[in-house]
């Protein structure tokens, strides 16, 4: 799967704006987003990890379509991915910000479903 296919859930404008606001090079941010999507596909697989999160966390799935899951998860999930993927300084906040911005731009997600102790995470379905 190509990086462009892995980045399909995200608008390019969201990636560009977030990179600028977070002082992260756009290419670095795109690579980090693609690495995260690839990791979810490979280890253990999108459907499997979402299933595990559904068991572990209270109702984390905000949206489920044939193309994407949008979840609200504890921020520690992002910290685990950042450590696993060895994100450079400043990349984790930018990656999380892309997911958050794309989530609020999604018509299927209501503002009331976003809570302060959870962080949005989008993943393309296989």
Give an overview in words.
It comes from Haloarcula salinisoli. InterPro entries: DUF8048. Residues 8-123 form the DUF8048 domain. It is a single chain. The protein is α+β, with helices and mostly antiparallel strands and 126 residues long. It contains six helices and three strands; from the N terminus they run H-H-H-H-E-E-H-H-E. The chain has a three-stranded antiparallel sheet with strand order 1-2-3. A hairpin with a 3-residue loop joins strand 1 (61-64) and strand 2 (68-73). Helix 2 crosses helix 6.
H/E element sequence: HHHHEEHHE
N-end to C-end Cα span:
10 Å
Low-confidence residue ranges: none
Structural class by SSE content: alpha+beta
Radius of gyration: 13 Å
- The number of distinct β-strands equals 3
| Mean of all residue-level pLDDT scores | 92
The largest sheet is:
3 strands, antiparallel
Shape: globular
Strands ordered across the widest β-sheet: 1-2-3
Question: What share of the residues does DSSP label as strand, in percent?
Answer: 5-15%
**SS summary, helix count:** 6
Task: Bin the helical content.
Answer: 40-55%
